[in-house]
Model the fold of this input.
Amino acid sequence: MLSFMMLVTSGAWTPTLLQRAGINGAQSSVAIALFAFGSVVGTPLAGFLVSRFAARRVLPIALVASAVTLAAVGHASQSITLVIACLGLAGFFLGVSSSGLIALAPLLYSTAIRSSGVGWAMGLGRLGSFVGPLAIGLLVNRGWQVGDSFAAIGTPALCAALFTSLIGINRQERAFRIPSEKNYQQQPRNTL
Done:
């Protein structure tokens, strides 16, 4: 779940990156608070949006929007108002995408392996929340500019948007598939 990586990395590095852009700590705190508030609003809304419009439509839009708004933060650093607005929107779109991806994950696995599949997906998301801040730290250490660093934080969302747009799940067909008797042909018995 790349959205976990982006949420944690944004929370960990935004204050430092904003400070490098010349934004003071008090203004940075407001921006981070609005990022968290946007996520709080987007998270419960994801269920409604996904059930109303389908995950295949909602998730790519939310993921691309989170990438765009995160990239915009670095390039809007001359205006604290724009930074706060972009971070609030980024939090909202990441909240929608992270909750939507969690809701989608069980539909990707058969019943026999569903808990293992979702567990692995969640575990890999947690791994991303560990690796993401380290990767941005390496980039900052190598002299990346603030705008490029925020763009790097948002880039994984573009990959996730591509993959979620390719998912074609018909939940009703999958959940209620009842094999017909015609599909079961009598197999010859091996008599030894």
